[in-house]
Design goal:
The complex is a heterodimer of chains A (168) and B (166).
Chain A (H helix, E strand, L loop, with lengths): L1 H37 L1 H4 L5 H12 L9 E4 L2 E6 H17 L9 H20 L6 H34 L1
Antiparallel strand pairs in A: 1-2
Helix pairs in contact in A: 1-4, 1-6, 4-6, 5-6
Chain B lengths: L4 H16 L3 H5 L3 H16 L8 H30 L3 H15 L4 H19 L4 H35 L1
The chains are: A mainly alpha (168), B mainly alpha (166).
Chain lengths: 168, 166
């Protein structure tokens, strides 16, 4: 009786762990695909007109794609601006780092600290206090992207663990 | 009206209005739909003081609804602007689009595709409206806004719930 209960609990724990790892891997894979997409001009050395055209169209729905605000790698402008690139790469780095670790306790304060530099940069640049800097935009995006990814992941894991809990 | 729809409608409309402001896109970038979804969830929580915690499912649905409203309104605004100005972004990318279709080596299908594209352009330039163009704009907006709206909804739900705990 006791042995069966232990076995059941162990199964539940394994199932939870597996679903969490699967979820993280799935999210990370999607992020990698998305990142490769906007890095396409730098990754494809040959002039791949077709994929460039379609990807530019796709990313134009989520970014203004101003060439002056985009990072240039190997003389090629990326398909999103420096801030967006920072957000996505931040999420990707967080996704890789957290893959086999548990998510640290997230407080609203952490989110506020992550979002404030980006907001300040946007407002100050808009007001013309200082000129737009790709490095600042990229770094503020990087911080926000990584924190947002952790919040997103924690919420998704909550959703999945609740579903498993209900199944029990 | 269902209490879920009202904040989504208000925020979706607000976000779509912002998309029409020149230069706004360069500031808000990909964050417009997630921010609108976040505000929508915040308003939903405010309108229901009895709710202590918002479920992730509710957050996703609210984010999605906000994004759908935003996409529909934004597409409508774009269609109206195209109707008034009788021009669109498509005109500038038309030579590129033709090149892409030719590169696909589709034979007869390529010719038909170019014909459809040219018809779309001439419709926009003469009448200011093309059904196919309107459909394409609406569909792409719906897909991208929905993804970012749901992400925004989930993140906002996590933040709002954590704010209640601490």
């Amino acid at each position: 009786m006791l042995l069966t209960e232990i076995k059941n609990s162990a199964n539940i724990i394994i199932e939870k762990k597996l679903s969490v790892t699967f979820l993280r891997l799935l999210l990370l894979s999607l992020l990698i695909i998305w990142t490769i997409g906007f890095l396409q001009p730098a990754l494809l050395t040959q002039n791949n007109f077709l994929s460039h055209y379609f990807l530019t169209k796709i990313y134009s729905r989520v970014c203004h794609q101003e060439s002056s605000k985009s990072i240039i790698i190997a003389n090629e402008s990326m398909l999103v601006c420096a801030r967006c690139a920072g957000i996505y790469l931040g999420a990707l780095i967080a996704g890789i780092l957290i893959l086999f670790h548990s998510i640290p306790e997230l407080k609203v304060k952490v989110f506020t600290i992550a979002v404030l530099p980006l907001l300040l940069d946007v407002c100050i640049t808009f007001l013309g206090v200082y000129r737009y800097s790709q490095t600042v935009a990229f770094l503020t995006g990087l911080v926000l992207g990584s924190i947002v990814y952790l919040f997103l992941l924690s919420e998704l894991e909550n959703l999945f663990s609740n579903k498993i809990h209900k199944k029990e | 009206m269902n209490k879920k729809y009202l904040p989504a409608l208000v925020c979706g409309f607000g976000a779509s209005v912002l998309t029409t402001i020149p230069g706004m896109e360069s500031i808000a970038c990909c964050l417009l739909a997630p921010i609108a979804s976040g505000i929508s969830i915040f308003l939903y929580k405010k309108s229901q003081p009895g709710i202590y915690k918002i479920g992730t499912g509710t957050g996703i649905v609210l984010g999605l609804l906000t994004a759908i409203f935003a996409a529909l309104f934004a597409s409508s605004f774009e269609i109206v602007i195209t109707y008034i100005t009788k021009t669109s972004d498509l005109a500038t990318s038309m030579p590129q689009a033709e090149q892409v279709v030719k590169d696909m080596n589709l034979g007869q299908a390529a010719e038909e595709s170019i014909k459809v594209l040219k018809q779309m352009m001439s419709d926009i330039q003469s009448k200011g409206f093309s059904f196919l163009y309107a459909l394409l704009i609406t569909l792409t907006n719906l897909i991208t806004y929905s993804i970012f709206g749901m992400i925004g909804g989930m993140v906002a739900t996590a933040i709002i719930n954590k704010r209640n705990i601490h």
